[in-house]
Amino acid sequence: MGISRRGILTLGLGMLLPLRAMAEPVSQGPISQGKDVLDALSLAPWIADGAESRRHAYVVFAPWCPVCKILFQRTRGARDGVQLRWVAGGSRDDRSTNQNLNVVSNRSLDMLTRIFLEPGAEIADLQKNTQALLTLVRSEGAIKTVAPKINLTGYPTLIFADRGGRVQAIAGVPHDLDALFAQVGSA
After folding, report:
1. Reduced DSSP (H G I as helix, E B as strand, rest coil) percent helix, strand, coil of the chain, to 5
2. To which H or E segment does residue 94 belong?
3. What is the pLDDT of residues 89-142, one digit of tens each?
4. In this structure, are residues 187 and 161 in contact, taking their beta carbons and an 8 Å threshold?
5. 0.90 cut: is pTM over it?
6. Would you say 148 and 96 are in contact if contact means Cβ atoms under 8 Å apart?
7. Is there a smaller number of Cβ atoms within 10 Å at the N or the C end of the chain?
């Protein structure tokens, strides 16, 4: 069964959200209300960044987003035992779609690093790879599912359960990442 690129895009790969340069909380609520958000993101094909941990934060990103690149660069250091789980979204053209396809099909931090730090580097053309396309649909579908529940307004958005059991969603790059990571609780 062949699925055309247009068919996949029709399923939701064209999601574009406005960019926020400064970090700001976009949503917070008790984990009982946000459990479906965390569950949906846990099923997305996320890329692990850091050692496996019960303390983790999902990062919804777009490969073309300069603020996402800044967040990626700033999170290369210690994260207080928090694992970041990068969730690909924001496919807006053939290049970004192919970058996302490579990220979700490999689920590799090395590929994510390459996308952010070497954006012009050659990568495999996976736009006709049905498995990669379906995996990207799962990723973007999870984002579309959670977007209205957390008022997702831009890339990047960090989503996590805090130590008080509330689901937090923060758009942009927080000024004090250490303080943010200290807030992340066990999910």
Report:
1. 45, 20, 35
2. helix 94-106
3. 999 999 999 999 999 998 999 999 999 999 788 899 999 999 999 999 999 999
4. yes
5. no
6. no
7. N
